[in-house]
Amino acid sequence: MTTHEPVQMLSARLALPLVRELRGLGHDPAPILKELGLHEAGLRPLEARMALASWLRLHAASIELSSDPAAPARAAARIQPDAFPIPLHLLGSQATVREGWRFSAPYLGVGIDGLRAELIPEETRSRFDFQVQGAPLGPAPLAEFFMVGLFAYGKRVIPSELLPDRVNFAHPRPAHADALCKFIPCTLRFGSRSVGFEFPTAWLDLPIRGADPQLGQLLAEQAAAWLSTHEPTPRLADRVRLWLARNLRDSDAVASRLARDMKLSERTLRRKLSEEGTSIRELVAKARQARASELLGSTSAPLDAIAFELGFSSVGAFCRAFKRWTGCSPARYRAEL
């Protein structure tokens, strides 16, 4: 029996900036939309969806017709409210950035299938990471468009001129990286282990201009109804990754505690993870590596504190594991950032 990977979908509204960019360049977007089985009016409804592959074709067309690889980013920087997918409207409906994040987080999948965001708060500097099915948000064209559009949105709803400390991309540095800096004028890091941005923690308590909690509640109900019938069940491995992010410090009996919280026997847990091509050992190692890289890069915490945070029995055990993962010591990794 042949199985097929599900077609990844996203909000059709994310195509509107690309359509407008094409028109602004003097090109009629209708033929390309027709080729993709779309029409412009059908992109506007909040519930409208399109295949990621079709969005990527539209993205490529804006580059081909403009001979400018930064054209899609320019389109994202000019995003208008009628192109905001539901999660952005939900974020902007609450009183502060922190409240908007909490309110919108469960509904990110309405914007991009499987999208999840993790807030990693620290005392003075925090970070948002964006993932799809446990991997950094991608492919590269979508990650760049998403981050530029997100900050264009932020300028509209936060009454301050704010810039992140750094924006991270998982893909290699592209030839148009300098042009991207015009739309996100801060440090851009390519080849990172995550897609997201780092920012002063104080941002989380900034007020949102034009907050409307009542509208937010109505939209949340609409988003919840959509997700109940459309969003695929998360893979077990993704659920395990989320669990590990909260439980790394206690390394005792990980498998039994994990199985209990997943409401599975250990044997079934291991079998199901094997069917998904992974294991508890592999997921724990990757979670530790990711968290270690975060702490080494964004804090000055001593190595013994990091080792404890990650559930290692000693600094030596942590250093040996980190060198096995990355090929260098934690101290060298931190020095080279």
Give the topology, please:
Layout: E1 9-11, H1 16-24, H2 30-35, E2 49-51, H3 52-66, H4 71-77, H5 86-91, H6 97-104, E3 115-120, E4 125-132, E5 135-136, H7 140-157, E6 166-168, H8 177-183, E7 187-189, E8 196-200, H9 213-230, H10 236-247, H11 254-262, H12 266-275, H13 280-298, H14 303-309, H15 315-326, H16 330-336
Parallel strand pairs: 6-7
Antiparallel strand pairs: 1-2, 3-4, 4-5, 4-8, 6-8
Helix pairs in contact: 1-3, 1-4, 4-7, 10-13, 13-16, 14-15
Low-confidence stretches: 1-5
Coarse shape: globular
Q: How many domains make up the 3D coordinates?
A: 2
Give me the CATH architecture of the largest domain, please.
Alpha-Beta Complex
Main traits of this protein?
10% strand, alpha+beta, 8 strands, 16 helices, disordered N terminus, H-NOX domain, 337 residues, Arc Repressor Mutant, subunit A, globular, two-stranded antiparallel ribbon, 2 domains, six-stranded mixed beta sheet
